[in-house]
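Hi Prof. W.,

I finally got the CNTLN protein prediction working! I wasn't sure whether to trim anything, so I left the full sequence exactly as given:
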Amino acid sequence: QQEKEDLQGKLKLREHLSQTAGKSEATPAPSKNIDSEIKQLQCKLKNPNTETTKQSTTIKSLKNQVQEKEERIRELQAKISLLERDLTMKRHLIEDLRSRLKANQENEKTSNETLESLERKVKALAEDKKASIDSLEQRFNVAMKEKSQYEQMYHKAKYDLEKKDLKLTKLESKMIETECAMADLETAASQQLHGLAKQSAQALGTLQKELLLASDKVEEFKTFVKTLTRELHCSVQELRTKIKLAKKMGGMKSCKGGLTQECLQLAASILNISTTDLYEILQEGDDEETARTKMECEKDKEWLQHIQKLLEVQFPFASYLMDAVLEKLNEKKKLVEEYSSLMKHTL
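And this is what came out:
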């Protein structure tokens, strides 16, 4: 608008100058320049006019929008005032309701407390009543049980008394009968005792005789077993000595076949040892034989001790005794076979 006003002012000045110049000067050249400038200024003026029209239209539209918005704001403010009134009313109502709720809650608390105290009292009274009823029922039951027990005891005692009276009468009659029978039994028992004493004396004599015979038989059996074991032991020892002699005889015969002094010296020279060492080596078999005989003697002693223990132990011992005797008999059998085979070889 300012530019427009400035241009309009310049146009007015130019027109005024042109008018004054046209009056004062008669030449046409400057008027042409002024017209051209006027035209330029008019063109320049047209552009801001268009711009001002545009801006005025925009201003009008903006004014319309502002009015609409103001109306909208007024409506909203009216609504807000209504809502604020509603809110204040609701707040007053809420506060009233809260105060009422508090009063009701306090009343409810007091009523609940009174109810709880009353319930406690009722429970206590009910429990006391129940306890008293239970105690009375228990007493009543105990009294009834005692009554029934006493009645049973009375009936039982009455029945027992009647029974005992009957038993007494029976016992008295039986006592008289038993006294008579006892007298008869004493006479009979004295007679029987005399007879039994005689019979027992005779039986004891016979038993003593039988015991003596049995002990004699046992002693005879023990002597028989001892002699049998000794004979077996002696026969086994004889067989062992015979076998040793047979072995020595076989060795002597083999030595007689060619074991001379020269042969011994030759054997000693081959073995690179002396003849005395060779004799010691040949006699090592005798040491082994003596050790073996010692072992056999120890075994025989153990066997005899075992037989003696079997005879001394309690019954039954026949199977163990039989096993021990059979063991020695089997040993004797083996020795007899060995001796017979050696004798065949030596012959």
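The two ends are 179 Å apart (CA to CA). Does that look reasonable to you?

Thanks,
D.
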